Amino acid sequence: MKAIIVTDKAAGTAGMKLVERPEPQAAINDVVVQVHASGFVPTELEWPSTWSDRRDHDRTPSIPGHELAGVVTAIGYGTTGLSVGQRVFGLADWHRDGTLAEYVAMEARNLAPLPGDVDFTVGASLPISGLTAWQGLFQHGRLQAGQSVLAHGAAGAVGSMVTQLAREAGAYVISTGRAADRQTALDFGANEFVDLENDTLEDLGGVDLVFDVIGGDIQKRSAALIRAGGTLVTVVGPVEARPTYGLAVDFVVEADRAQLSAIVQRVRDGRLRTNIGTVSGLEDAITVFNAPKRRAGKTVIRVHP
Ligand SMILES: NC(=O)c1ccc[n+]([C@@H]2O[C@H](COP(=O)([O-])OP(=O)(O)OC[C@H]3O[C@@H](n4cnc5c(N)ncnc54)[C@H](OP(=O)(O)O)[C@@H]3O)[C@@H](O)[C@H]2O)c1
């Protein structure tokens, strides 16, 4: 099969190569999925799991990309819940070969059925950004209606989901980003926008939940705004400043079938809009990932037309 591999951490996306690889086999509780569309987060190439297995042994050449939508083509020993021919979408294991390939083997529990009226491109854009937003807001942040949320990077993949899901849950959402991102954030439903390049974060009153996707100084200054009992959730760690009277949670997103289904249902009924910026084929993917220009929103690779 055709797949994109990486072998050299220092080379970043410039080190990606499109090569022939053996098709993966389904292990216990796995399925093999023919990948129709794949999502790739550039920072994956900095994560240890791209380069080593769970015993910290070198696993290169590794195939990056961990989001996908596609069709099940084989079932492993003991696998239940999915069948050959079924449309699925989900989040592949960080420590195994990923989805910038024609086929991927992964645990069935990390996938959910993809309804027939949802395009594969849309399906592949949802798992990381949707699940990260969902878990940060509702599991780690325990968001309640009426609370206020500071949603950083609202024009980005995760931040646009955070903004929409928090609004739907009845929160007051203050979204942030660069000056040029104001309208995008408001279109995703933000009640207010803070331009991190020109406005002063400290002018905001207290907030109940900070959803951080930027880190560093912005994270530290945001932690100081958290009201008693509030929470800082960050997906870019480390937590550099804890809220004085609240909790700080630094987490990595996990696959969850029920949450994936809840997210895709919201896309179907119009409560949630995806934030897809660029769509390209597998042949052009390396060029797209190496383009110097900023890519707004999610980049989705159509592997199978
Ligand atoms: N731990 C986890 O489970 C997990 C899961 C998902 C994502 N992540 C991480 O979360 C981060 C965001 O992911 P994403 O996919 O949402 O990325 P993204 O689509 O690039 O979104 C990030 C947004 O924040 C903006 N931004 C970044 N720094 C800023 C600054 N200093 N001032 C103003 N705006 C700023 C970006 O603008 P520009 O494009 O102009 O910089 C962009 O609009 C990444 O580091 C990713 O690795 C972690």
From TrEMBL:
The organism encoding this protein is Paramesorhizobium deserti
Against Gene3D superfamilies, the record matches this protein to: Medium-chain alcohol dehydrogenases, catalytic domain (3.90.180.10), NAD(P)-binding Rossmann-like Domain (3.40.50.720)
Location of the Enoyl reductase (ER) domain: 12-301
Q: Which Pfam families match?
A: ADH_N, ADH_zinc_N
Stated name of the protein: NADPH:quinone reductase
Please give the Gene Ontology molecular function terms for this protein: oxidoreductase activity
